[in-house]
Each structure stands twice: as C-alpha cells, then as structure tokens.
Amino acid sequence: MNVTAERMSISTPHPPTPAGLFPITRSGPESGSEPWADSGPGPLLESEPESAPGLSLEPVPDDIETVGEATVERPRMTSRNVGVMYGDKMGIERVSLDIGSNEVLAMIGPSGCGKSTFLRCLNRMNDTIDICRVSGSIKLDGEDIHDPRLDVVQLRARVGMVFQKPNPFPKSIYDNVAYGPRIHGLVDGRRETDAIVERSLQKAGLWDEVRDRLEQPGTGLSGGQQQRLCIARAIAVSPEVILMDEPCSALDPIATARIEGLIDELRENYTIVIVTHSMQQAARVSQRTAYFHLGRLIEVGETNHVFTNPRHKLTEDYITGRFG
Amino acid sequence: MSSEEHIFRRFDQELADLNGIVLRMGGLVEDQIAKAMHALREADSEIARNVVTRDHVVNFLDVQADEQIVNLLALRQPVGRDLRMILSLGKTVTDLERIGDEAERIARMTLDIHGSDNPPPDPLLLSDAFRMSRLATRMLHDVLDALARLDVDKAIQVARGDIELDSEFQAALRRLSTYIMQDARNVGHIINVTFIVKSLERIGDHSKNIAEYVVFLVKGKDVRHISPESIDPEELNR
Known about the structure:
A: Rossmann fold, seven-stranded mixed beta sheet, B: Methane Monooxygenase Hydroxylase, Chain G, domain 1, 0% strand
C-alpha cells in the first residue's frame, strides 16, 4: 500500500456566490458557475490558508470540471484532488468534495463510476487492497487522514462504515454492539457496557425489538434488523461520520423505510455519506447529492436542485434514465 | 419534445401522449376563440351556440391530461427535465381550460348581443373587441408554438407582449365608458362587450402564464411574478 498525500499547490479562496438572478429567489442556490471559477492561480500554499470564518478551509483546485457546490460551510471532511489507481487502472481522479457536518451526502452514479471507491477512501478502507494507490488530500476536522502519526484503527472508529449486506459478527446481539467499545477501551465494567449497548440499540431503533433477547445470536435477526444492528455497532464507538455503502439494497421496502427514517434521525448527531443505486433513496434521505461518472465527480449540489434542475447533461441523462 | 429517448421506452410514449393531449387542447381552444369572434362579427348565433356546446370537449381533454399526469407521477417518478415537463404541462392544461371557458363566455355574450330583441350594436362598439382579439389570439398561437418547439426566446416575447394587450384593455374600457355617456341606450350592449374584452384580456394573461411555464420547463428557472422585461435570456443560461 502506497499512500501519497499530495500537497495542494493552488490556493484561492473561492469567490462568493453571485447574487441571485431574479428578484424572487427560488430555494436552492442559483449560482450558475463553479464557486472556484474565474479565480485564477493563487500564491503557492505553504501553510493552512487563512479563510474567512465559516468558509471551507480547503481551497478547491480550479482545474476540475465538477459543476455545482463542492464546498460547504463548516465541513466535517474535505477531499481535494483525490485519485485512486488500482495498479495501472484509474478508479477515480481529481475528486474534490466537502462533506458538511450533520448532513447526509448521497453519492450516485452508474456501476463502476467510483462512488464506492471514493467512499472507501474516507476511512482508508482502500488500504486493505494491495494494488490500490490513493493520492490527494483527505481531511477529517482539518486533520490529514493519511498522516503517518494517525492510527488507522482510531480513524475507522471516527469514520464508521455500514455495508451493503448486513454482516453481524457470529456473536450475540449484545456482543455485536459491545465489541467496538471494548476493543477501543471506551467502557469500563459491565454497567457501562450495558449502558452503551442500550443507548446504541435505541439510537438504531432496534432496542424495543431485541431488549429481551440480547444474548441471542445477531445472525438470527431479520435482514432489516441485522442492518440496524450493524448501524448500532457503528454508533457504539461514537463515530463522527458514518459511511453507508448501499445499506438497503438487500432489504424489503418496509425495512428500507425504517433504515431511511433512521438515517434522517442520525443526521442530528452524525455526518452520513451514503452510496446508493436507488435515486429515489438518494432523493429521500440526503441534503446534498454527488453524481459520479467514469471516475469523475461530475456534479454536486443540493439534492432538491440536482433532482429538479441538474446542471450537467450527464447528471440529467442518468437521473432521468436516458441513454448517455 | 425531448431529443433523447429513455432507456424505458414506454415512458417516452407516455410523455408524448401527454404532450399530444396538451397540443390538441391548445389547437381546440384557439379554434374556439376564432369561432366565437367570428360569430360576433357575423352575428352568427348558430356558430356561437356550437362554441358553447363544444366547451365540454376542452374539459374532457383537461381531465384526460390530468389522469395521464397522475399516472406518470405515480408510476414513473419523474425527475429533472421530465419532472419539469410534466409539471409545466399540468399547469398549462389548467390555463388552456380557462382559456376555453373565456371563449365560451365570449360566445355567450355574442348570443346576448345578437340574439336579443334590441337593435344590433353600432359596429364601433365592437371594434375594440376585434382589435384585442387579434393580439390575444396571436399571443396564444405564439405560446403554443413556443411550447411545441420549446422555444424560450419566443416564450419571453409572448410574456412581454401581454403589456400591449393590457393597455389595449384599459383603452377599450375608457372608450366604452364614453359610448355609455354618449347614448345611455348603449348600456346593454356595452356591458356585454365589456365582458368580452375582459375575457380577451384574460386569454392574454393565461398565454403569458404558459409562456412562463415554457421557460421553467426548458431552463428550470421560475420567472413568474416578475416583470417579463426584467428577464435576461443570458442569465437564464447560467
């Protein structure tokens, strides 16, 4: 595994969004151009740029073609110029995207477009693939996640993950949830563990269904319950960000609706990034939507804007189900 | 109306069906207005009665379009341009249905004017109605054209044209009130003519609404409730 975190070379605070076009502004930003357009090359960056308060600290390079608002105020995570190579095959390239605090960001796009690859960059899951090489910068709360001093196990506690197929440990429901806090040393004694298990299961909306059978195996639950157990397991270590890779694709519509409702509630305390093949799901649960195509981030913006008036033709063709 | 096809072909067919209903409805209400005005000009009560009875066809198309829209929304969950098209066409049929009602009203007034025992009106009393009907029918024709071709520039032109019709309407009211002052026996006719010019003014308003839906459909920008003069076509492209 060879991780190179390239330094950003161009620093230009993005100009303010142009004023609205019409006297009556519609919901959603009307700025037609990329926030970093027309900004010209800036001075070489040696240290963290001093940005206006409330604005993203990370400038976005001006040579990428993403349309929409890739930056947000108060980002939880920032990625700049992120590229992934699998051997000599490009996975994603030049992805620059902010993930705002307490927002649900949905990533959509056809199979192989790089959305899961990008998701897996956010907690360095790609480290587990030998031929995978990640470049660019990814920061969590301003900290470089590729910093050699950073413990990757700690990182994955802060940036948790829920997978497509529910994958509870072959252990009891209780132990599934207690496992993380125990190995991270977050709990001391049975009483604290009990408390964290109950709290996590409650947050995941599963407590009432399993409170009387905590010692039964987690694998004995229904698919939807298992997925909520996995969410409880992710929550138990108090992450800041939860990554979800098609968390509902193996679930029926009712179980899906429960997970979606849960995602909406969890947003209050966590930042959530979800990869989904269901555009309706992206539309339902997210505040921002990012569209990937052939390893590029094509468009990102407020979900209501992306689904009513996408700016890029590729986005339009994909969401409306047309030939590209 | 869209250049590219959906992967799911039936969706295209259903959108085309909706589009067909709307354009058919547009053609029908254009004809209703033309016939109503013809009846007024030629004092032809038979044609006026036909216009009145044919309004239910307009209403039928309105209901048919709405059914198609409900099905499209429920079964296809449209987004992006498809969603904008369906919403815009849905609002367009409402305006077309009301234009149909205005045409019917003109026909009813015509029956009143020419069917009563009163002496026929001085042609001067009707001249404003004919002048306004030329403007209103041109607006409607142009906006249906803009809708069929998704021509934003033409739609903006139509929206801007409404000012001229509005000022014609004000002028007509002033003139009609002077006719009353000249000869109080004109009152009966002039009340009917006032309703007719008001209907024509409304047809202009509805056409302007449709023009705004065309802009929303193509550009995704809501330009209602702002003066058409302040719409910058350049800005629409951003």
